[in-house]
Amino acid sequence: MTKVHEDRPVLPTQQDEVAAAGSELIGGPIGRRARLGGHWLAPVRVVVLVVIGMFALGMVQKLPCYDWAWFRGAGSQYTHACYSDIPHLYSARGFADGLVPYFDRFPDVAADPKYGGMQYLEYPVLTGAFMQVAAWLTPSSGSIQHREQMYWMVNAGMLMACAVVIAVCVARTHRRRPWDALLVALAPALALNATVNWDLPAVALAAVAMLMWSRSRPLLAGVLIGLATAAKLYPVLLLGALFVLCWRAGKWRAFGATALGAAVSWLVVNGPVMYFAWDGWKRFYVFSQERPIDFGSVWLLISQRTGNPLEGANTYATGLTLLLCLAIGLLTLTAPRRPRFAQLAFLVVAAFVLANKVYSPQYVLWLIPLAALARPRWRDFLIWQAGEIVYFLGIWFYLAYTTSGDKHQGLPVEGYQLAIVVHLLATLYLCAVVVRDILLPERDVVRRDGSDDPSGGVLDGAEDAFVLSERAKAPQCAAPSGGQRVDWGTDPGH
User: Is there a contact between 216 and 387 (Cβ–Cβ < 8 Å)?
Assistant: First the structure.
């Protein structure tokens, strides 16, 4: 087995036919003898410039709404596919009136009558803090329309910073594959959905957590997972992925440090609000439990096609999620080689997305950095992104149809159902490719240079301690200690 060049980055244009074809726009693939170091346009800097540019294009896409469509009825913001929750909730959730999230209620006609038509903010604590900071930074003078515009702009600036953090973390998680972060930076779904809601802070914290885990800092990774979970619920699933991976590798001390860090940081953020404003704090969890079947979910598709309201949607969604997670756990313990952390993180979050009662279009942001790390191939990534663009357009045009009255402008329900199917199939396709890479590790592009798990931290190159299949018990060519990589060639026995 021959050693590879540890410091030389992997060049997608030399391994990926789609990347090579796309590079023709800027002069073609880089030569094998090209000098890769010493230039100020290092990979991370290029990625940062690209993600800022794409984010700006996404802001331009929202221009029709910024200028007028957010403020002139519902239909126009849907027909222009530029809807955002941010300006609407500035007023609707009391930020324009100086109300304090979780402590003050805002008027809500759908609220329980016992609260006098008032309700609490339905977002997790750290997301609520993000919204409040943006409100503090928003000028308090001018018309309400001007203030809503400024609130969106302030949030856009803060969310852009989150997008940069995500792209940089992806570039640095796999040390020899920084250019894979261009998948994140150029993702059309990132540009289109970045300012629809407040998902990027949680995604950024989860991305930093994965970077810290890859640097063998499990306690700090856990702290960041806890903070990410305080912003959105889904990052807690990363602990499930780490649990089964550490089980197979026998790395219980590392997992314990991560779980402890996550629990403590989550409690530090949530504890004060739980103590002083219990009713406001629990609103997010009650809302999530009581929320009916909603847009984008497989359950809505089944309900609309069968005419069955599916009253037990919570049970169905929870049961399917648990079954999928159990299947992922069994896959981890029976695969011929231990899956990479990024692969398992992508699969478990995708399972949650597919089984959930609702699929808002911005949920794709959760998966973009995980997909770039789990399956860094442009063809597969773009197939999935194409499906998400179809869904992005489908939901807005469907809402335009439902708000157009007798005009029937937009996408009828049958068209929207087709958009849901396209989204589900595109996500399932990417999941299937990742599962194939796990079952046939020689097909995994990240491992072609002899790497084991560049995002694995203490798991990288570790021996198995517990497996469930004879195939998994076969000797493995793990990376030598110290992170040195080897080249296995094409021998499928390794």
Answer: no
Within 10 angstroms of residue 487's Cβ, the number of other Cβ atoms is 13
Q: Flag whether pLDDT at 28 surpasses 80.
A: no
- Residue 178 exposed, middle or buried by CB count within 10 Å (0-12, 13-18, 19+): buried
Q: From CA 258, how far away is CA 465, in angstroms rounded?
A: 19
Q: Are 262 and 226 in contact (CB under 8 A)?
A: yes
Token digits for 95? 């930020």
CA distance 298 to 254: 37
Which single residue is written with the structure tokens 């973009």? 368
| Tokens at 414, concatenated | 């049958």
> Do 78 and 410 touch, CB atoms closer than 8 A?
yes
Q: Is the pLDDT of residue 358 over 80?
A: yes
Does the reported pTM lie above 0.90? yes
Q: Is 238 exposed, middle or buried (0-12, 13-18, 19+ CB in 10 A)?
A: buried
3-state secondary structure 439-472: HCHHHCHHHCCCCCCCCCHHHCCCCCCCCCCCCC
Please give the helix or strand (H or E) that residue 487 lies within, else none.
strand 486-487
Is the Cβ–Cβ distance between 44 and 178 less than 8 Å? yes
Cα–Cα distances (Å) from 228 to 126, 199, 203, 284, 360, in that order, read: 8, 10, 7, 15, 19
Residues recorded for the chain = 494
Structural tokens at position 28: 């073609």
Least confident of 75-79, 321-325, 470-474: 470-474
CA pair distance 157, 186, nearest whole angstrom: 18
